[in-house]
Amino acid sequence: MWFLIFLISFGILLVFIELLILPGFGAAGIPGCLLILIGFSAALWKFGWQTALTSTGITLVLVIPLAIIGLSVLRKTPVIQTFILSATENKEAGFQAPPSELVSLVGKSGKTLTPLRPAGAALINGNRVDIVTQGEFVEPETDIEVILVEGNRVVVRSLQ
Question: How far apart are CA 81 and CA 64, in angstroms?
Fold first, then answer.
């Protein structure tokens, strides 16, 4: 019986390692799920439903909090930190969020100042804005509408 509880506990630990430490899915998650399933199935086959459910339930109640606490502490160690992405995108490194005035342009209309091939410039709300189309050519002085803003990229469509 103790071996089956160990199998289920180790399976739960592997699933939590997959969730909290390792990127992606499969390296520890699939073997963990298999160990849980094997441990429960073996307990069910050898001891019956009541004992299998009781032992699995007690194992879950005891191991999950211990796994969460243990892996949270383990994440702080230097060895595990090599597996965890800790890079940030901050202003000092040159990263910028899209200006809030660009995000507010979605749905607004304006006129092109230059030909859009597919990039160019337009006058929207009295401001000159660098814009792109979704690939089509647009003549100057054409009415356009902003349909999407992705970062600093303002995507428009022709209204004509």
Answer: 22
Determine the 3-state secondary structure of 100 from DSSP.
helix
What H or E segment, with its residue span, contains residue 34?
helix 29-47
What six digits make up the tokens of 150? 């992705």
Token reading at 149: 């803003």
pLDDT in tens, 3-54: 878 888 888 888 877 877 776 777 888 898 898 888 888 888 888 888 888 8
Per-residue tokens: 99? 């200006």
* Owner of token pair 């211990």: 66
Q: Which of 136, 125, 135, 129 is nearest to 153 (CA)?
A: 129
Cα 57 to Cα 40: distance, rounded to the nearest angstrom: 10
| Identity at 88, one-letter amino acid code | T
Query: DSSP alpha helices (H): ranges in the chain?
Result: 2-20, 29-47, 49-74, 78-81, 100-103
What are the CA-CA distances from residue 18 to residues 10, 13, 41, 87 (Å)? 12, 9, 22, 20
Question: Cβ-count burial of 108 within 10 angstroms (0-12 exposed, 13-18 middle, 19+ buried)?
Answer: middle
Q: Are 132 and 153 in contact (CB under 8 A)?
A: yes
